[in-house]
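May I ask for an example protein's residues together with how it folds?

___
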Amino acid sequence: MSSDLIETRLSQISDRIRKGRENKHLTLAELGQRSGVAPSTIQKIENRQMTPSIVVILKIAAGLGLEGGDLIAPPNPSPRDTIIQSKGQHATIVVSKALMFEKLSADILGSELECWRIVIAAGHEMKLSSPAAMGEQIVFCERGQVELEFGSQVYRLRAGDTLHCLPQPVHRIANPADVEAAYTMSGRFPHSAHAAFTAELNGRSSHANGRSQPNRRPSRAAV
C-alpha cells in the first residue's frame, strides 16, 4: 500500500471518528469514558496529530456503538464487477507480532464473499469467548500447521490441506507447530461473526506457552 493511500485511509478514520462522535452528540470526555481512551488521545487522532493503533480504533468504535470495520473499511464498495489488487494493496490488520489479518478480497458492491489470509506465530492461539457463527467456509493452509475448532470438532491442517464446511461456530484458532503458519479463509462472514472477531481483536487474543493443548483430539481434514 502506497504512503499516499495510507495517509488517505488514516484521514478517513479520523474523519469517521469525529463525525461519529458529533452525530451522537458526544463530547471528547464522554467518548473517552465510553471507550476507555483518553480524551486527549481522541482529540489528537481526530486532528491527525496521532496515528492510532488497531486496539485504540476498536475501543473507540465500541464507544461509538460501531464495529472496527466501520472506521477502517474503504468509504464505499466499488460498483465495478471485477477488481485486481496488486501486492501491497490489500487491507492489513496487525494485531500483534503473533497475529495478522490480510483482506485479500475487494469491496465489490453486492458481493457477499470475503477472503482473508491469517498469519499466526508459532504456539499462538486465539480463543473466541463468544463463538463466531460463520457462514460456509473454505480454508486453505498455505504453510505451517493450523488448528481450527469448528462446532464440536478440532481440525488440524498442514501445508496444502483444505477444509470445506457448512455454517457452524468457530471457537478457537491456533498454531500448534514451532514455525509460523499462514492460511486463508474464504466464504461468507455474517455480521455477528465480524462482531465476535472485533471483540477478540480488542485485546483478548492470547499467546500459548509452547504447543497448544486442545481439549478435543484434532482430526486431519479430508482433502
